[in-house]
Amino acid sequence: MKQPDLGAANEKFNPENVLPLLQTISAMVEKRCHRFLSQRYGLTMPQYMLLLAAMYGDATTLGGLADELNCSRGNLTGVADRLERDGWLVRERSTEDRRVVNIRLTDKGTRVWEIKQELAKEMADLSRVWTAEERGVLYRLLEKLYRDLKRRDRAAYLEGAQQVEAPGA
Asked: Pick the residue with more confidence: 82 or 161?
């Protein structure tokens, strides 16, 4: 596969413009997603993300789901309250440890898989401006950026943990 000529793009690249551009694009895409979820299902983006994490993630408690979603448990409690009120999920006390409350999707909540598929179709419309090759390049670049950011976050976390352990050493 022939690689696209990125020479022209390199000439226009200005690091000062990248963050505002990424923030603007992210906000525009999130707005489209929010409108889709709200109009069709009465869901907010945080509610949708919690349903996805509950369906596909490893965690079953609000604390574990908050960790997976990288948000506070306090924020997630309100989101879960509304989802429970609207019949998307239920809270169930663990039979092994009464202190533990697990989240379980209801039949309505398991529809999140269908919602994800529909949302993917809606978002695919955004990629119509690119060729298949350009979509592949974009995905690889975004994936590479994601991996690097995860690596940096992990390194910063480990560095912080070492500093906490070493004050008197």
From this structure: 82
The answer on pLDDT for 157 being more than 80 is no
Which residue range forms the structural domain that includes residue 157? 130-169
User: Same domain, yes or no, for 88 and 158?
Assistant: no
Q: Write out pLDDT tens, residues 100-142.
A: 889 999 999 999 999 999 999 988 888 899 999 999 999 999 9
List the beta bridge partners of residue 104: 90
Contacts 24+ apart (CB under 8 A), 99-106: 100/61, 101/61, 101/62, 102/60, 102/61, 103/54, 103/60, 103/61, 103/62, 103/65, 104/54, 104/60, 105/51, 105/54, 105/55
CATH code of the domain covering residue 93: 1.10.10.10
